[in-house]
Specification:
By secondary structure, this protein is mainly beta. The chain contains four helices and 43 strands.
């Protein structure tokens, strides 16, 4: 609920005052929508925005039922009858036109047909309140005059030009605009699905975005900023419809929350406060736009000296960045001047100023750039000439490579006998003595350690977990190499196979192993396990397994894992961008 509160004090004298106060109160009650905003909200438990239900064909009528995601829910259409077509229409909650409408709700379709819809119906055409109780396209194909609709269609009507039997459609002013495949989201799964629909009419945008989050899964973007021609702001109220046909399904609705807003133009600031770049490479400076956007905005940038001097250490740079409505990040480059002189690192600053188009400056408007001198090998290092040993060539392709405490390298290839797809590789681990220029085969454990994960234990031994039975099929085996004794020993097997897992050393010396595929690329080992250093055994974190999500949200090959500072939790990330979960079975490294 969003509202503005005004306090008004009026003084009246005599009996006419009562009449005047009554007129003022009546005006506020009737016209309060001019200054009081209220979202369309309804969870079918108590209170919320007023609505009216309508039965447009056979029984049963729509009805509130117990047992939804958060309490009661609305059964909009029922699988108990064919040709059951019903609607729910909400009273207008927000007067006037808006340039950003964000609708969120939970829906569930259990059965085969036909589907349901969400719509913003035009109040000029359909009134500010009252039921929608007329025949027409108000259901999974919301072709509604002067209105915008989004359909969730679970039946493949070839004659209607449907994309398939599991798609989302966008409709405007009585016509279908576009179908979108719902993809991994099964609209008729019988599970609750959370829908988020973002409508941006006019103001530089005329588009619709739809994001669906199935129960227990991650969000799936069905369409992003899909342009709807001629869509402009119009006063609207919310409606949902559902229909069964020759086949039937239960169509359920809950937790409706629709916000009508005038979006702010947002702010613009630096994405990072500090940057570093070598003398030989331009610094790339990122500028981000925060908040909603409705049009093009601009921001000026310029460099200024600190210890780095323009024309000597870098090229002075200035200009203007333009953000289109869909732009979130822009960048510009500043070029250092390379020289052969050994000197300290130098710094300059970049500044943002003069925001245009209605945007405001964010808090981070100055960033510092450090030019790292690249001429002192003692400080920055240097590449030597390539190592070429034709008399003693590499015995393997070092797919797996580890630096040992004695300064030598342990490496191995994949194991494949001659005549196979990767024939001629032996999979044996070798020690490379760089100083001596020699390669020595280590004792073989008798299985293929290709595609394993590995990490050094605190005592200097190397633990390798998992391996290769076939592509995508992981070993459950564990091997431990002691460089002081030049020996391999077998540890106890893990809970199941892991092909491309990740091993991470914890603060107490134990090891965390994550992911890797067991059998096929979609069969991910979701059981996190801890290698107990003191006992040499595995401990499974069974509570963490349920938090890993549903494939492909959970990373299967080498998930990136980092410690969360200050709380001792481990945060896995899939494909480096999507945070999956912290392993909440333990809040401290010592207990992990």
């Amino acid at each position: 609920m969003k509202a503005h509160l005004f306090m008004i004090r009026l003084n009246f004298s005599g009996s006419p005052g009562a009449t005047a106060r009554g007129v003022l109160l009546a005006w506020l009650l009737v016209n309060g929508a001019l200054w009081l905003r209220a979202d369309t909200v309804q969870n079918f438990d108590a209170g919320g925005t007023a609505y009216e239900l309508a039965q447009n064909n056979v029984n049963p009528a729509p009805a509130v039922v117990a047992g939804g995601p958060t309490g009661n829910f609305l059964r909009l259409a029922s699988a108990t009858a064919q040709q059951n077509v019903n609607t729910i229409a909400f009273t207008k909650s927000d007067a006037g036109t808006y340039k950003l409408i964000t609708a969120e709700f939970d829906f569930r379709i259990t059965g085969q047909a036909d589907g349901m819809s969400f719509a913003l119906i035009d109040t000029f055409t359909w009134g500010q309140a009252g039921p929608i109780a007329v025949p027409g396209q108000f259901y999974q194909e919301p072709n509604i005059t002067a209105s915008l609709g989004v359909g969730f269609d679970v039946f493949y009507n070839v004659e209607d030009g449907d994309l398939n039997g599991n798609h989302v459609s966008i409709h405007f002013n009585g016509k279908k605009v576009q179908d979108f495949d719902a993809g991994a989201v099964n609209l008729k799964s019988g599970q609750w699905i959370h829908a988020k629909i973002i409508v941006r009419p006019g103001g530089g945008n005329s588009d619709v975005s739809v994001v669906l989050t199935p129960n227990g899964g991650g969000p799936v973007t069905v369409c992003t900023n899909f342009v709807v021609a001629a869509l402009q702001p119009f006063e609207s109220r919310v409606m949902f419809g559902a229909r069964t046909g020759g086949l039937t399904a239960d169509h359920d609705l809950d937790n409706v929350n629709v916000k009508f807003e005038q979006p702010i133009l947002g702010t613009v600031g630096f994405g990072f406060s500090t940057y570093a770049t070598p003398e030989t490479f331009p610094a790339q400076i990122y500028v981000s736009r925060y908040g909603a956007s409705t049009g093009d905005v601009t921001i000026d940038f310029a460099t200024s000296n600190l210890t780095a001097i323009a024309g000597v250490d870098y090229l002075a740079t200035n200009g203007t960045l333009t953000f289109a409505p869909t732009d979130l990040v822009k960048f510009f480059r500043v070029t250092p001047i390379d020289n052969a002189t050994i000197q300290p690192n130098r710094q300059f600053t970049v500044h943002l100023s003069n925001p245009g188009g209605g945007v405001s400056l964010d808090t981070q408007t100055v960033a510092t750039v450090t030019i790292v001198d690249n001429d002192d090998p003692a400080r920055v290092g240097a590449w030597d000439t390539p190592i070429d040993m034709p008399a003693n060539p590499y015995p393997v392709v070092p797919i797996h490579l580890n630096l040992l405490p004695n300064g030598k390298l342990l490496m191995w290839d994949r194991g494949a006998p001659i005549g196979t797809a990767f024939g001629g590789t032996d999979g044996n681990p070798y020690i490379w003595d760089i100083a001596a220029g020699t390669f020595t085969k280590t004792p073989f454990l008798g299985y293929d350690m290709f595609c394993s994960g590995h990490a050094l234990l605190p005592d200097g031994r190397l633990l390798s977990a998992g391996g290769n039975i076939a592509d995508g099929v992981g070993e459950a085996k564990v091997g431990i190499f002691d460089s002081a004794l030049n020996t391999w020993t077998r540890g106890p097997d893990m809970n199941a196979g892991r092909w491309y897992p990740t091993l991470t050393v914890l603060g107490n010396g134990n090891l965390l192993v994550e992911a890797g595929t067991v059998d096929i690329p979609t069969d991910v080992n979701r059981t996190s396990q801890i290698w107990e250093l003191t006992t040499g055994t595995w401990r499974s974190l069974t509570n963490a397994a349920a938090q890993h999500g549903v494939f492909p949200v959970w990373a299967n090959y080498y998930p990136f894992i980092r410690p969360e500072q200050g709380c001792g939790r481990m945060l896995p990330r899939a494909v480096w961008t999507t945070a999956i979960t912290a392993l909440r079975s333990s809040m401290t490294m010592a207990r992990l």
